[in-house]
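Example S7 (structure tokens).
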């Protein structure tokens, strides 16, 4: 979840809802990495125990964590590519629709990866200057991501 660009950020309440679904229905332990403030916000929105390792892992430890992870769920960030290189299955959430910024360019390489991207008709996509309040990301629902994760179990 560690991002500087609002055009890459799936809403925190969606991460919270997805975390609850994964914990309550699949009994998965949830580890949050990224910005501490954002991870703590997700934690306050849930009723489940979360492990927060935000802003605390050196690159080697992040790699070790991602290697052992059952699954990595992420915005369009660098850790998704580390997880892909280590063979960890990934679910990535994409917003932007510009040719050089879209999942066609930045989706992780390899097998066993799913990405979500909703084309809501923005032509052209204005990315960081979005006039639609990043609805492309908001239309990706926690329930549909949860159903995709179920295919890994």
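Recovered sequence:
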């Amino acid at each position: 979840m560690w991002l500087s660009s609002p055009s890459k950020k799936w809403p925190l309440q969606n991460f919270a809802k997805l975390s609850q679904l994964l914990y309550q229905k699949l009994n998965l332990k949830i580890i949050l990495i990224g910005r501490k403030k954002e991870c703590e916000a997700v934690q306050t929105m849930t009723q489940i125990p979360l492990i927060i390792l935000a802003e605390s892992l050196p690159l080697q430890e992040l790699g070790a964590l991602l290697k052992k992870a059952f699954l990595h769920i992420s915005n369009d960030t660098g850790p998704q590519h580390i997880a892909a290189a280590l063979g960890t299955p990934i679910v990535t959430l994409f917003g932007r629709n510009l040719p050089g910024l879209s999942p066609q360019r930045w989706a992780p390489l390899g097998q066993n990866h799913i990405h979500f991207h909703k084309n809501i008709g923005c032509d052209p996509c204005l990315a960081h200057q979005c006039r639609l309040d990043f609805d492309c990301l908001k239309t990706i629902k926690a329930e549909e991501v949860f159903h995709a994760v179920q295919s890994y179990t």
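Notes on this example. The chain has a mean pLDDT of 89.
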